[in-house]
């Protein structure tokens, strides 16, 4: 069991160069299977999910040259082959499902394990993906412990309106549509920054996509895609995480950020807890004057709220980070997860620090901040930024704490502990396998 040992109470100081967003990198890696031309990707992070996908590429016969020190990946899928009876896609990784469209396009068949999953955020159905595959002409069959998707001939263009703006379903639609016969239209498409980055990569390959950054995408299928070179952006999740770490510890952390246009709502959310964000010369900085304090709404009979939903709402993945700030701030705040029904069950762990958190229902909690906290041993569920949120609280409290089951952090944040130590944090991994 991997756990973080934290000796908290040290204000973090310094500068951080963030990594790329795994939610952009993983779909891009899956998309590379659509082309037999050579590719060079810059800024590929050394995280467990990347290693799993590159491992399956090697087993499929692709040429994979990865330099984790520089983050440069050279890929060439020219001799790639796939056997649905022999090759298993990575398990315990939600992004495995995005390997299905390129495998269908190149080999006419794909196999997906029944237990494909990501973080434990409640029930995460695959029905929207199955519907997309079928709309493009795929046949879905149940195998022993797996799903087999087949297609005779090229995928056929379609029009589709999603039930909700799902990131992965949107990306699967684009992956199918890129080389399908005809023009495809998706309404209620997700438009998060990482979806836009993924679409820009597809355009670099030669895909014809209209409406990037909006809720309606039109994709004109092409016969084949090419190669090229692509540079990933910094992860806005990681930028926000380190800014929040600086704020909660009373320190001064600056994070490189070349996409400040993604941050107006995130900046306003920081302000609700007494933290001002400054963007200057390609860097972002969290400025805290005095204690964290929940902003009082103009309408005084309501609570300050952080409502998380698909972009351009406040990002759901960042909600735990701000719950940690809410626990440490004076005053009360409501946090509302409008997407996942199992994403707030961990907040009981905060009570081990002495925090007061009221669960309204599966989607809403209220933090009753300003209470004195003490070090604790806490258990994180398999959710990346919940482990980070628990660490944030521990880092803000003098004394020794443990964050157990913290390994999910490695799925998104390379060199997380090393970066923290460079800022002065007293933290280390323990109990690693």
UniProtKB/TrEMBL annotation:
Record's subcellular location: Cytoplasm
Gene3D superfamilies: Enolpyruvate transferase domain
InterPro entries: Enolpyruvate_Tfrase_dom, Enolpyruvate_Tfrase_sf, MurA_subfamily, RNA3'P_cycl/enolpyr_Trfase_a/b
One Pfam assignment: EPSP_synthase
UniProt GO molecular function: UDP-N-acetylglucosamine 1-carboxyvinyltransferase activity
Enzyme class, UniProt record, top EC level: transferase
SUPFAM superfamilies attached to this UniProt entry: EPT/RTPC-like (SSF55205)
The protein's name in its UniProt record: UDP-N-acetylglucosamine 1-carboxyvinyltransferase
Family assignment from sequence similarity: Belongs to the EPSP synthase family. MurA subfamily.
Catalytic function, reaction form: phosphoenolpyruvate + UDP-N-acetyl-alpha-D-glucosamine = UDP-N-acetyl-3-O-(1-carboxyvinyl)-alpha-D-glucosamine + phosphate
Pathway as given in its UniProt record: Cell wall biogenesis; peptidoglycan biosynthesis
UniProt domain Enolpyruvate transferase: residue ranges: 7-420
Record keywords, A-Z: Cell cycle, Cell division, Cell shape, Cell wall biogenesis/degradation, Cytoplasm, Peptidoglycan synthesis, Transferase
Primary location: cytoplasm
Domain of life: Bacteria
Enzyme Commission number: 2.5.1.7
């Amino acid at each position: 069991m991997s756990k973080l040992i934290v000796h908290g109470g040290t204000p973090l100081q310094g500068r951080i160069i963030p990594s790329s967003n795994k939610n952009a990198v993983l779909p891009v890696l899956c998309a590379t299977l659509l082309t037999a031309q050579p590719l060079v990707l810059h800024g590929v992070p050394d995280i467990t999910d990347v290693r799993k996908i590159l491992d399956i590429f090697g087993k499929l016969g692709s040429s994979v040259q990865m330099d984790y020190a520089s983050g440069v990946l050279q890929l060439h899928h020219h001799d790639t082959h796939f056997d649905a009876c022999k090759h298993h896609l990575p398990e315990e990784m939600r992004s495995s499902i995005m390997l299905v469209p390129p495998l269908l396009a190149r080999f006419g068949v794909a196999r997906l394990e029944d237990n494909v999953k990501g973080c434990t955020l409640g029930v995460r159905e695959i029905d929207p993906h199955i519907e997309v595959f079928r709309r493009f002409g795929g046949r879905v069959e149940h195998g022993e412990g797996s799903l087999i998707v087949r297609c005779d001939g090229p995928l056929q263009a379609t029009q589709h309106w999603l039930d909700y703006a799902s990131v992965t379903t949107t990306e699967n639609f684009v992956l199918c549509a890129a080389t399908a016969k005809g023009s495809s239209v998706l309404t209620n498409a997700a438009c998060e920054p990482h979806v836009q980055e993924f679409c820009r990569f597809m355009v670099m390959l030669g895909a014809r996509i209209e409406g990037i950054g909006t809720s309606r995408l039109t994709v004109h299928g092409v016969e084949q895609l090419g190669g090229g070179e692509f540079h990933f952006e910094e992860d806005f999740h990681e930028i926000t995480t380190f800014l929040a770490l600086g704020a909660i510890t009373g320190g001064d952390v600056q994070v490189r950020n070349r996409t400040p246009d993604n941050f107006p709502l995130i900046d306003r959310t920081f302000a609700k807890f007494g933290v001002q964000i400054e963007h200057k010369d390609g860097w972002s900085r969290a400025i805290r004057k005095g204690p964290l304090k929940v902003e009082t709404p103009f309408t005084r009979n309501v609570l300050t709220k952080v409502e998380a939903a698909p972009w351009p709402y406040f990002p759901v993945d960042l909600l735990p980070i701000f719950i940690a700030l809410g626990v440490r701030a004076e005053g009360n705040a409501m946090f509302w997860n409008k997407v996942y029904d199992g994403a707030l069950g961990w907040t009981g762990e905060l009570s081990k620090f002495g925090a007061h958190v009221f669960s309204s229902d599966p989607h809403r909690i209220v933090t009753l901040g300003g209470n004195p906290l003490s070090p604790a041993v806490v258990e994180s569920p398999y959710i990346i930024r919940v482990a980070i949120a628990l660490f944030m609280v521990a880092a803000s409290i003098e004394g020794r704490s443990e964050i157990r089951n913290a390994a999910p952090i490695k799925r998104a944040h390379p060199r997380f502990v090393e970066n923290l130590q460079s800022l002065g944090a007293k933290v280390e991994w323990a109990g690693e396998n």
